[in-house]
C-alpha cells in the first residue's frame, strides 16, 4: 500500500509490500549476541537482543513504526496533513520523530524538564516540535501535566492524533516480531525471556507470541523499585527515588495483562548502574539503564535458574543517552553517595 505525501510523492507502508530497504525497513532484525563473559555458559546460557541497532537507537522504533503505520492504514493519520501528539521523555519521542519525518507528519512531543538536552535536540533535528511542561500543581507530578497538555493540544490542533503508547495495542503487537526474531535464532524459543517493563508493550507482545505459538518460554518482567505496574509498592519502596527512565511507571498501563509475566523482579537505580557497568566491563556493550536492570535481574536469577537453561535478555537501548548519568562517575557519586563500581575489579579475563 502507498499513501500520498503532501508533495505528491508516494510513501510506501513498511509491512505491506517488499521494497528496496529504506530507513524504516531497517527497524527490527536486531542482533542476538552471547554474553559468555558475564554469564559463563557452564551454568546457564545468556543471549542479549541488542535493540540499540534499530535506526532510532532503541526498541521504541518498533512500537512507533507499528502505531504510526497502523494509524495511516486506518485513515487516522494523513501524511502531509495530520499532526501526531505524544507524551514521551525519550526513546519513543525520538522514534516518533524519525517515523513522522519519514511519513511527512508533524509531531508535537510533550516532555518535562527531566528529558535530557540531547534527546530534545535529536527530536528537534528530525523536525519535531518539543513542548516542555512543568509539574502538575495539584499533585506535584509531571505525568498528569504532560497528559493534560496532550489533551489540550488534541483539542486545539487540527487533525491531531495521539498514539497513546500506554494503551495502544499496536505498541504491543510490534513485539510479536521481536519474539519471532528471537525464536528464529533459537528454534523453540529460550527457556526464559528477561525484559524491562514500562508501557508493558514489550512484555505483552512477546508473551502473546509465546502463548500463540505454544512455547514453553517463561517471561521474567523487570520493573523498578517504587513502580506501580504490578501492584502498589511495598512501604520500604516509597523512599526510593526513581531517576533512570525506561522501565517502571507511576500509573498502571492499560496495556498491562499481569498474568503474562511468570515472574516479576524489581531493581533499584543502583542495581541498574552496576548492571550497566558490568556489562560494559565484561562484554564491551555500552547499554542503557533498563538494560542494566535486566542484567541485574539475571545476576539475581542465578539462585533459581535451573542449570543449562537458555535465557534471552532484551537490551532496550544503548548507553550513549546516559553518558551524563549512568556513565558519569560524578553523577553516580552524587546520586548514590558511593564510588562507582571499579571496572578493573569487575572485569574477568576473557
Ligand atoms: N527500556 C527503555 C530504555 C525504554 O525506553 C522503554 C520504553 N519506555 C522500556 C524499557 C520499556 O518498554 P515497554 O514500554 O515496551 O514496556
Automatic annotation (TrEMBL):
Pathway participation:
Siderophore biosynthesis
Which Pfam families does this chain map to?
A: PALP
Which top-rank group of organisms is this from? Bacteria
Which keywords annotate this record? Pyridoxal phosphate, Transferase
Q: What class of enzyme is it?
A: transferase
User: Entry's InterPro entries?
Assistant: Cys_Synth/Cystath_Beta-Synth, P-phosphate_BS, SbnA, Ser/Thr_deHydtase_PyrdxlP-BS, TrpB-like_PALP, TrpB-like_PALP_sf
Q: Which cofactor does it need?
A: pyridoxal 5'-phosphate
Q: Which residues form the Tryptophan synthase beta chain-like PALP domain?
A: 26-317
Task: Tell me which EC number(s) this protein carries.
Answer: 2.5.1.140
Q: Which residues form a coiled coil?
A: none
Function text: Catalyzes the synthesis of N-((2S)-2-amino-2-carboxyethyl)-L-glutamate (ACEGA) from O-phospho-L-serine and L-glutamate.
Q: Which family does it belong to?
A: Belongs to the cysteine synthase/cystathionine beta-synthase family. SbnA subfamily.
Q: How does it assemble?
A: Homodimer.
Name assigned to this protein: N-(2-amino-2-carboxyethyl)-L-glutamate synthase
Tell me the gene name. Answer: sbnA
Amino acid at each position: 500500500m502507498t499513501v500520498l505525501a503532501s508533495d505528491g510523492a508516494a510513501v510506501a507502508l513498511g509491512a505491506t509490500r517488499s521494497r528496496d530497504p529504506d530507513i524504516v525497513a531497517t527497524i527490527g532484525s536486531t542482533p542476538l549476541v552471547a554474553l559468555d563473559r558475564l554469564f559463563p555458559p557452564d551454568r546457564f546460557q545468556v543471549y542479549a537482543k541488542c535493540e540499540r541497532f534499530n535506526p532510532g537507537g532503541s526498541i521504541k522504533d518498533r512500537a512507533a513504526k507499528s502505531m504510526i503505520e497502523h494509524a495511516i492504514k486506518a485513515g487516522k493519520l494523513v501524511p502531509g496533513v495530520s499532526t501526531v501528539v505524544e507524551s514521551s521523555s525519550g526513546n519513543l519521542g525520538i522514534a516518533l520523530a524519525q517515523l513522522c519525518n519519514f511519513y511527512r507528519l508533524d509531531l508535537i512531543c510533550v516532555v518535562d524538564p527531566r528529558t535530557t538536552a540531547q534527546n530534545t535536540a535529536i527530536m528537534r533535528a528530525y523536525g519535531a516540535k518539543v513542548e516542555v511542561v512543568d509539574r502538575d500543581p495539584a499533585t506535584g507530578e509531571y505525568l498528569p501535566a504532560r497528559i493534560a497538555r496532550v489533551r489540550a493540544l488534541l483539542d486545539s490542533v487540527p487533525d491531531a492524533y495521539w498514539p497513546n503508547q500506554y494503551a495502544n495495542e499496536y505498541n504491543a503487537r510490534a513485539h510479536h516480531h521481536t519474539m519471532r526474531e528471537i525464536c528464529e535464532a533459537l528454534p523453540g524459543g529460550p527457556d526464559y525471556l528477561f525484559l524491562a517493563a514500562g508501557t508493558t508493550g514489550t512484555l505483552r507482545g512477546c508473551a502473546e507470541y509465546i502463548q500463540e505459538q505454544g512455547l514453553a518460554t517463561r517471561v521474567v518482567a523487570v520493573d523498578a523499585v517504587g513502580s506501580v505496574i504490578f501492584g502498589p509498592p511495598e512501604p520500604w519502596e516509597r523512599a526510593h527515588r526513581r531517576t533512570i527512565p525506561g522501565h517502571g511507571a507511576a500509573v498502571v498501563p492499560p496495556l498491562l495483562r499481569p498474568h503474562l509475566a511468570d515472574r516479576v523482579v524489581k531493581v533499584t537505580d543502583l542495581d541498574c548502574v552496576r548492571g550497566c557497568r558490568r556489562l560494559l566491563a565484561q562484554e564491551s556493550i555500552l547499554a542503557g539503564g533498563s538494560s542494566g536492570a535486566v542484567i541485574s535481574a539475571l545476576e539475581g536469577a542465578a539462585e533459581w535458574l535451573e542449570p543449562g537453561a537458555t535465557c534471552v535478555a532484551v537490551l532496550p537501548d544503548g548507553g550513549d543517552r546516559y553518558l551524563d548519568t549512568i556513565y558519569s562517575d560524578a553523577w553516580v557519586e552524587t546520586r548514590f553517595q558511593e564510588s562507582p563500581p571499579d571496572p578493573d575489579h569487575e572485569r574477568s579475563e576473557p
